[in-house]
Amino acid sequence: MPLMRIHCLQHVNHEGPGSILRWARQRGHGFTRSHLPDGHRLPSADSFDMLVIMGGPMSVHDEAAHPWLVEEKRFIATAIRDGKKILGVCLGSQLVAQALGAKVVRNDAKEIGWFKIFKVEDAKRSEMAQALPDEMEVLHWHGETFDLPKGAVHLARSQACQNQAFVHGRVLGIQFHLEMTGDAAQDMIRYSGHDLVEGPWVQRPETILWEPRRFDRANAVMDRLLDQLSRSTA
Predict the structure, then answer these.
(1) What domains are there in the chain, each with its CATH number?
(2) Chain centre distance of CA 70
(3) Pairwise CA distance, residues 228 & 117, whole Å
């Protein structure tokens, strides 16, 4: 597997790359990042091979409150046109879906906690799906969702949200947090705990943090997805 230069777009301190950074270091890839709210500059197009776009509490529609979203969206659209390998996580998946022409809308219910995703029939059309089990428990933390972009392959759904993952050429979007570690989940609860309002698909903090091995299992699947994306020639 050739070495890559990976650049990460981060929107808040407590939603970092998690196990993605460990994966990159273990495989010898370069890794840089921009923290957009702090005014970090975006890299030049020729300085990276893969773009990783993390989550955040804001919406893709919050350009008035977060003006840097405007430049970020242009940057993502350019990276897609340039054929870069791209992974979008949670908010990141919604940003790439929007860049591909899809709508981002409020989901029927907030989905926060460990709930199963299920690989869909359409996923058989993509080699990326080989890295996903037929079903698995993953950590969710989102209130919005995306329509599938035109030409995308639908990979997974959950009971609370139909469109959980898609692949479009070299672009992979996942709404759930396979990269999250136990420590990062504690930070999410500390800084975004106000999201944990009562609802059918919202778990309590102690439930989210129970059984640390769930994070290890999710991280292992993240590794496999990244390995598959790294090999992608689509």
Answers:
(1) 5-231 (3.40.50.880)
(2) 19
(3) 19
